[in-house]
Amino acid sequence: MAKFIFYRILQAIFVVFAVTLTVSFAIRLTGDPAIMLSQGAGSITEADLERIREALGLNRPFLVQYWDFVSGVFVGDFGRSFMGGTSVGALIARALPATLMLALVSLFLSIVISIPLGITAAVSRGKWADQAIRILSLVGLSFPNFWLAIMLVLVFSITFRLLPPSGMEGPISFIMPAATMAIILTATNVRLVRTTMLETLRSQYVMVARAKGLSETKVLYKHALRNCAIPLVTYFGLQFGGLLGGIVVIERVFNWPGLGTLAFEAVAARDYPVLQAVITVLSLLIVSINLLVDIAYGLLDPRIRTE
Amino acid sequence: MNPSELLSVQSLNVSFGASTVVEELCFSVEQGKTLAIVGESGSGKSVTSLAIMRLVEHMNGSINSGKILYRHGEKEIDLAALDDKAMRKVRGKEIAMIFQEPMTSLNPVFAIGDQIVEILTLHEGLSRSAARKEAQRLLDLVRLPDAKELLDRYPHQLSGGMRQRVMIAMALACRPKLLIADEPTTALDVTIQAQILSIIADLQRELGMAVVFITHDMGVVAEVADDVVVMNKGKKVEQAPVADLFANPQKAYTRALLSAVPKLGSMAGQDLPRREPLTVIKDNQPQEVGVSRALDTARYEEAPLISIRNLVTRFDIRKGLFGGVTHRVHAVEQVTLDIFPGETLALVGESGSGKSTIGRTIQQLQDPTSGEVIFKGKPLAAMSKAEKMQLRQKVQYIFQDPFASLDPRKTVGFSVAEPITTHGLLDNRAAIDRRVAELLERVGLSSEHAERYPHEFSGGQRQRICIARALASNPELIIADEALSALDVSIQAQIIDLFMELQEERNLAYLFISHDMAVVERMSHRVAVLYLGQIVEKGSRRAVFETPTHSYTKRLLSAVPVADPGARRKRILLTGDIASPVRAVGNEPAIVSLNEHAPGHFVAEEAAKSINHQGEHHA
């Protein structure tokens, strides 16, 4: 197991390198930050632009700039933003917890709802409860997330004035963004839980558990669910990665002070250091979640643990 | 209910949706006795056992009418009318059940100890530590070695036989009054089956428990039962004490069933395999159809069709991250064999003996590690691509599972025609269609079947389709790898006859791979017994079956249950597990040498103590 984790960490480092290299390179193809910075400053000469580039270090070869960035990351220095020179590290430190919390709350909410719903659907396969749950999940799947977000704001903030329409102030402000994401996630998760559960329920050991005289709750939530854990944890792990990407839209709608908003603004301004840092942090997060998922396999399944 | 009865099933009807699977079933189980329910697939025997446990409802079945009376102390309870909460107190506590598939009966994610502890804390109210102690005692009781250490092991670390013993320990944890065993030994090798049957019998005596034994195997019935219920298509055919049933079956169906069962020893005194008439039911009377004729088809004076010389096949097991080979499966070790035109050579042995690997190597589905396969005098290694292709045409394979070996999305006609088109044997469509129709009719199907899809056929019919497909390329050798094992006995008897008929007609050679000694005895000219990848005994069928000489052959033959209740005998029982062909790298197995014991009868030399088993005792 230790050897396995060591190997996965090596792999993770390689992935992070590949991602940051690609992003740093690609972003430099999208436009010149010197022009962005000098917009609205009247008449600008090529010499002025060159001076800005020099001040930002953009006139150096790409690999030098990349190395500068990477070596900074190792000592925790993400550099300074092109816009106002704020420390990128400080920007990330403010935005990361906001995004992480929102993502975790959404995922948690979705798991807590989709497991019992999925199990109920599987157990009552073909009956009305199953049909109802499947129709609901299809409805949930069909909503575009931004539309759902705007509708929630219209109903709960504008009409009923129950919830704050934007920003992150206290637990109450989590309700709408987390609900929006959870609804969409739950729609797919219910189907996944239902399918894996149906598979497991056909197993002989489930029949054996019933033949022991165990209650249905024990049979389903102890014997069957543990065996569904591997596919579910894999999927939830992947989903968390997707969630971090998809959160950008929701953060915009709710004006959530997270990484999504930060990245969005950085792209618009060609703010390379900020964007590079956001992508690096996101890829680090996704890679470490996948690592955690792999470790969880061993904890969940003795067949993997004892090999 | 009679006071001696523990369970009485009265006019039971069970259905799945619109189809009735058990109809007006009545039988009763005496306290402390064993009732066998026997029948072929679709007879409703398993559904009956699930109905008694009230588990059919979880499979979307329902008990429509009838009573399942169970004696509980002074009272009689109708299990069919019990609510789920009350029923849960019966399950596991009063009536316990063991299932067919030991490999999937235990939950893979929980330790063995925890799975036994669970039932003890549930029904007996034991504390965890007391339950653990009791679980250890139970594992001792089913004769598992190192019970204490086993508590913390997981199911995948145990063999099938050990898992089934854990299942028995779990089922007996709360000292149930009735044990329902649904085909508990069907998935196991015969020597392990003999162990499990003896464990169940011993514990039944000790606990004074009644057993309902569900099986399709008449040999097992003769071995274990006091009374027998024969079922067919959801109905009871007849019920009788075991000796009466075998000696004097009343109903046509029972007689046909019994006559289809191959009995070990039935070929004694004969040199050649024999086609025997089949018993079929016509106008409610059993009738014999077909011929009785010895099969003198083998041409030993000719050169062998296929020769195998010093064949070795090993599989690397890569463990760990960087894929270092630490262990190897020694599937086949130094095997030398000849298959002559027109003969049936049987390869027998238990799981892991390497019998299937030999077949797959001949069919080029598997590359040998070393050694030679020689077809009509030419070694495989020296063959051109075209010659190898021709070998594939001349050697055909029939697999065990007729459900998995036909492409569900292709018509039967397409599957049968495929070898003809692949090898370019016929080139116009009409000729191919004619040939397919001919082949289907040859194996007892009709030419219209070509348009249909595999799911429209029963298991026996599908196996006939597979035979038609094998015949399509005009083979000289057919490798039948457990090709009869998944079939009901009556169907099996028909397919055996078809195999023999085709042999007479086309002078086919068969490599017949099987674990079923009675079927092997019926069909083969010569037999090779494999143990851990090596041949320990080979010779004519008569020599091997009538004068078995190697201790493993003797043990294998003595473990086979014989469908004759008068013949319950003392047998050589193994206490250990089947030895594993997996060895650490560098730890090469010793190669046994064969001595010619009698002309054509070769027996491996044995060391003073019995090979590789943990020991044995006489029961």
TrEMBL record, chain A:
GO CC term, one of those recorded: plasma membrane
InterPro entries: BPD_transp_1_N, MetI-like, MetI-like_sf
Swiss-Prot/TrEMBL GO biological process terms: transmembrane transport
Chain segments annotated as coiled-coil in the UniProt record: none
Stretches that traverse the bilayer: 100-123, 135-160, 172-193, 232-254, 274-300
Mode of membrane association: Multi-pass membrane protein
Family annotation (CDD domains): TM_PBP2
Keywords for this protein: Cell membrane, Membrane, Transmembrane, Transmembrane helix, Transport
Keyword Oxidoreductase: no
Localisation: Cell membrane
Record keyword Transmembrane present: yes
Domain ABC transmembrane type-1: 96-293
Annotated family: Belongs to the binding-protein-dependent transport system permease family.
Protein's recorded name: Peptide ABC transporter permease
Source organism of this protein record: Pelagibacterium lentulum
Lineage: Bacteria, Pseudomonadati, Pseudomonadota, Alphaproteobacteria, Hyphomicrobiales
UniProtKB/TrEMBL annotation, chain B:
PROSITE patterns tied to this protein: ABC_TRANSPORTER_1, ABC_TRANSPORTER_2
Hydrolase among keywords: yes
Keyword terms, alphabetized: ATP-binding, Cell inner membrane, Cell membrane, Hydrolase, Membrane, Nucleotide-binding, Repeat, Translocase, Transport
Subcellular location: Cell inner membrane
Ranges for domain ABC transporter: 7-258, 312-557
Alphabetized SMART domains for the sequence: AAA
Signal sequence annotation: none
Protein name, UniProt field: Glutathione import ATP-binding protein GsiA
Protein origin, superkingdom: Bacteria
Role, per record: Part of the ABC transporter complex GsiABCD involved in glutathione import. Responsible for energy coupling to the transport system.
PANTHER family: GLUTATHIONE IMPORT ATP-BINDING PROTEIN GSIA, TRANSPORT ATP-BINDING PROTEIN
Coiled-coil features, chain-numbered ranges: none
Molecular function per GO: ATP binding; ATP hydrolysis activity
A Pfam family matched in the record: oligo_HPY
Cellular-component GO terms for this entry: plasma membrane
Subunit organization: The complex is composed of two ATP-binding proteins (GsiA), two transmembrane proteins (GsiC and GsiD) and a solute-binding protein (GsiB).
Protein species of origin: Pelagibacterium lentulum
SUPFAM superfamilies noted in UniProt: P-loop containing nucleoside triphosphate hydrolases
Protein EC: 7.4.2.10
Main localization of the protein described in the UniProt heading: membrane
Catalyzed chemical reaction(s): glutathione(out) + ATP + H2O = glutathione(in) + ADP + phosphate + H(+)
GO BP annotation list: peptide transport; transmembrane transport
Membrane topology annotation: Peripheral membrane protein
Similarity field: Belongs to the ABC transporter superfamily. Glutathione importer (TC 3.A.1.5.11) family.
